[in-house]
Specification:
Protein name: Heterokaryon incompatibility domain-containing protein
Helix content: 10-25%
Shape: elongated
Radius of gyration: 25 Å
Pfam family, one: HET
Distance between the termini: 31 Å
Number of domains: 2
Amino acid sequence: MATIYNNAYLVLAASQAANSTSGFLDRRDESFSETPQLDARNALKIAKLRNLNGTVSHIYCRERTSEPLHQHRYKVEEAPLNRRGWVLQENTLLRRIVHFTNSEVLWECIECLKCEYMEIEDDDLEENSRITAGMVRNAQFTRTKAYNAPEDLHKRWPHLISRYKGLVLTHDSDRLPALSGLARLWQSRGAGEYLAGIWRDHMPESLLWTKGKNTECKRWDGYMAPSWSPFSLGYVDGRTSVRRPAFIFDDSDSYTMTERAAQVVDAQCSPVGNDPMGAVKDGFITLKCRMGAIRVEGNGRFHWADSLLVPYRGDSPLHPGIWGVVDWDGPAGGFFLKDVSLILLGYGDRNSYIRYVIAMVLMPSETVPGNYKRIGLLSSPREDLRKFLEGAEGRVVTIV
C-alpha cells in the first residue's frame, strides 16, 4: 500500500469519517453554516465547470472567516481518519491530497495547505508544523541537499514516531508494520539500516529514549521488539482506551549527546515475514564500550526514577556517595537491590562547566545466556561516575 500512495497522482481523504461505513459529504458544522452568502460579482473565480446540458458554471472561493490560519492544520490532524496509525505514512508518502473535513474541503500538496478561500498558511508556521507533526512530503526531501543529509533524517525521525505513537491501531502487532513505508522512504534518502524503529547509523543517540515520569506502563501482550528499541517498552492507556506506546525521546540537555563513547560492532533484527521494515521476532545490538558493575539501592516505592546507583567492588562500596537516579524502563522496585551493569554511551554538555555522562543500565538476559537486556537509562554530571566508567573494563556487549 505504501507504494500505491507514493505513486498516486491525487488522493481523496474522507477525513471526517469515523469508519468505512460513515459518509463524508455531510452538512457543515455550525460555525461554517453561518458563512455569508457568496457575492459572485466580487468573489474570486477559480475554475469553470461544463455541465451535461452544455451550460457552464463557475467555481468561486468562499468568503474568508475570522478563523485563525493554524486551525486548518488542526482540522486535518485531528480529523477521525488522521488519528489512525496506518494513515500517517499514507499522508506522508502521497504528493497531493484533498481533505474532506467536517467544515470545509482542504487541499494539501508538496508546497502548501489551502482552504476553500485559497488562503495559504504562513510558510514558517506551516514548515514547523510539518516537521513536528511528521507531515513531510516526499518532494520536500529533494528540495535541498540538506533534506537528503542523514543527520537531518535522523533528527526528524524521533519527531515522526512521537507523533505516530499516539495514533490508533486495532492490532498491537501492527505497530512496526504501519511504520514500514516511512522507514523505507527514510532509507531511500540515506538514513541507513533500519532496526525495529530506530537507525543503526544513529546509534547510540537513537537509544536515548525513556519512559515518561510517573507513567504506569503496561507490557504488550506478545513480543514487540528487542529491549533496546523504544517499541519494546510497553504502552499506556490513552484517550478512548487507545494503547499508546510509553516511550519518549527526551530532548533536554541531560539526554542530548554531543560525544559518543560506544561503538556499534553489529546489529540485526529477524523479521516475522518478508518485510525487513515490519514486525520482528528477535534482534540484537553489539556494542564496544566501557562496562562497570553497580548496585541499585532505593526504596522502590514509586514507578519512576526513584532509585539510586552506588558502585561496588565485591561487598564493599567504593565510596559512600551516590551517583544519581535512573530512568527505569519498568517499575524501579523490580530491580531493587539487584546487581546490574552500566555501560558508557557518551557525553552531553549543558555548558562549558557541566558535562553529563550518559549510560545505559543492563542486567543479564533471561532468554539468551551471555547477553544482556536494557532496563534503564542514566544521565549524571557526577565527576566520580565519569571516572569510574572511563576506568572500567572495555567490553564487547550484546544486548537483546
